[in-house]
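Priority: medium. Attachment 1 of 2:
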C-alpha cells in the first residue's frame, strides 16, 4: 500500500474516518443507541473505573494484584507517537509510569515466566522488561532488559504473542504486512538477561541509532528472527501460534486485506490462506489448546472489523493436516455478529477446554463481551459498554476480575469475572 497510508493507525486520533485503514466503518448507519439495543441481556456494571493520563491501548493483569497498561499518544504537531507503561493496583491507583519513545500497541507476559514482560512499539521495536514483585505482592518494579529493533523504525508493530509451547519464541506483526518470530533466548546473546556490552566484542552486538530513541537499540533484523515468505498486502493486524497437533508447527496471521493465512514455523513457507471467509480485516485469531476447545485441535476462532466472531475447522480434505492452497474452503463455519469490530481475544483463566471455553472479546465501539464457545456456537454471557464508548482495544482477566480499557475515553475499568 502507499507509504502515506502507513502513517495512520487505528489508534491515531480521527483514525475512524481514514478510509486507508479500514477501522470502525461497519456501524452500517446504526446509531450508538441502536447498537446498544442489539444487546438483550442486562449490562454488567464496572466495579471500578479510572481515567488514564494517556490513551490506553492494551493491558495485562499480573498475579491478581496489578494491571499493567500500555499507552499510545499521537503528537499531531510532529507526527511522532510515544507511549508509556502504567502500573495500577487492584483499586486502580496509579503506582508507576515508564515513558517509552515509541507508542505501545501490545504487551504480554511470558506464559513460562511472568516476571518477563514484552512490549510492541510504533517504532518497529520490541522491548523486554523484568518485573520484580516483593514476597507479599504488595509492590512492583519494572526495569528495562533489552530493546530489540526487529523492523524498520517507520513500521508499527501491531501485535505480540509469546509461543505457548516454546519459551524462546515471540511472534510479531506489522503495519507493512510483514510478520516475524524472534528468538529471545537461544544464540550467542540471551535477550531475557541484560546484555552487558563488555562481555562481547563490537561485532557481536549490533547497536544502531534510531530517531528519538532514548535507550540503546540492538538491531536484530535478519538475525535472531524468522522471516516468512508470505506478506499481507495491507496491514497485518494479528498473529497466533498453533498449539495442538497437527498445528504445533504452524503460525497464523490475519490482515487488513481480509486474509487469514497459515505458515510453516520451520520453513517459513505459506501453507494455506483464505481471503473469502471475512468481509473485512482479520484482527483476532485464537487456536485450540488444552484449556480451550481441546477436543477440536484443528479449529480456529477469528475476529474481524466486519463485527463478526467466527469458528471454523481446517481439516478440510485431511484428518491430520491442513490442505494447502489459496482460498481453499474451510468446514463447519459458524459466525455471530457482536455489533462491534472484534479487535482482540483474551482467554479465561478458568477454562477447562470442555464446557468452559470463554473468551473476553474487545468489541471496539461496542464495549467488551464475555463469549462462551459451546461446540461451534457463541453464547454471550456478559457485556459492558458504559465507559467504553470508543474504542475498547485492550482487556485481560484473572480468576476474580476482568480489566478492560477504552482508547479515546481514556477509560480503565474492572468488572467481575463470570462464575
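Attachment 2 of 2:
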Amino acid at each position: 500500500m502507499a507509504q502515506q497510508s502507513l502513517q495512520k493507525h487505528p489508534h491515531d486520533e480521527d483514525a475512524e474516518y481514514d478510509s486507508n485503514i479500514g477501522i470502525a466503518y461497519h456501524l452500517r448507519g446504526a446509531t450508538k443507541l441502536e447498537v446498544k439495543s442489539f444487546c438483550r441481556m442486562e449490562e454488567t456494571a464496572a466495579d471500578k473505573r479510572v481515567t488514564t493520563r494517556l490513551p490506553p491501548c492494551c493491558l495485562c493483569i499480573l498475579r491478581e494484584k496489578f494491571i499493567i497498561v500500555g499507552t499510545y499518544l499521537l503528537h499531531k504537531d510532529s507526527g511522532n507517537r510515544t507511549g508509556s507503561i502504567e502500573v495500577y493496583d487492584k483499586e486502580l491507583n496509579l503506582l508507576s509510569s515508564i515513558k517509552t519513545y515509541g507508542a505501545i500497541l501490545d504487551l504480554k507476559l511470558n506464559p513460562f515466566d511472568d516476571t518477563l514482560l514484552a512490549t510492541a512499539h510504533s517504532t518497529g521495536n520490541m522491548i523486554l522488561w523484568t518485573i520484580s514483585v516483593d514476597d507479599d505482592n504488595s509492590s512492583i518494579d519494572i526495569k528495562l532488559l533489552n530493546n530489540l529493533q526487529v523492523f524498520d523504525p517507520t513500521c508499527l508493530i501491531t501485535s505480540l504473542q509469546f509461543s505457548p509451547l516454546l519459551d524462546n519464541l515471540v511472534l510479531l506483526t506489522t503495519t507493512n504486512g510483514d510478520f516475524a518470530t524472534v528468538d529471545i533466548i537461544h544464540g550467542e546473546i540471551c535477550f531475557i538477561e541484560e546484555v552487558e556490552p563488555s562481555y562481547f566484542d563490537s561485532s557481536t552486538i549490533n547497536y544502531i541509532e534510531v530517531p528519538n530513541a532514548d535507550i540503546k537499540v540492538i538491531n536484530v533484523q535478519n538475525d535472531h528472527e524468522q522471516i516468512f515468505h508470505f506478506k499481507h498486502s495491507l496491514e497485518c493486524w494479528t498473529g497466533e501460534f498453533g498449539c495442538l497437533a497437527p498445528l504445533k508447527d504452524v503460525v497464523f496471521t490475519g490482515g487488513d486485506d481480509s486474509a487469514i493465512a497459515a505458515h510453516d514455523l520451520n520453513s517459513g513457507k505459506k501453507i494455506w490462506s483464505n481471503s473469502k471467509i471475512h468481509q473485512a480485516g482479520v484482527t483476532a485469531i485464537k487456536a485450540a489448546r488444552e484449556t480451550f476447545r481441546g477436543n477440536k485441535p484443528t479449529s480456529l476462532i477469528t475476529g474481524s472489523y466486519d463485527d463478526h466472531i467466527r469458528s471454523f475447522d481446517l481439516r478440510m480434505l485431511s484428518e491430520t493436516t491442513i490442505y494447502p492452497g489459496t482460498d481453499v474452503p474451510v468446514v463447519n463455519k459458524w459466525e455471530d455478529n457482536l455489533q462491534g469490530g472484534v479487535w482482540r481475544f483474551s482467554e479465561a483463566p478458568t477454562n477447562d477446554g470442555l464446557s468452559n471455553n470463554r473468551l473476553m472479546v474487545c468489541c471496539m465501539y461496542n464495549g467488551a463481551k464475555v463469549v462462551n464457545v459451546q461446540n461451534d456456537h457463541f453464547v454471550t454471557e456478559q457485556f459492558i459498554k458504559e465507559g467504553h464508548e470508543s474504542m475498547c482495544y485492550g482487556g485481560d482477566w484473572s480468576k476474580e476480575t476482568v480489566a478492560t480499557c477504552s482508547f479515546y475515553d481514556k477509560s480503565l475499568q474492572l468488572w467481575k469475572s463470570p462464575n
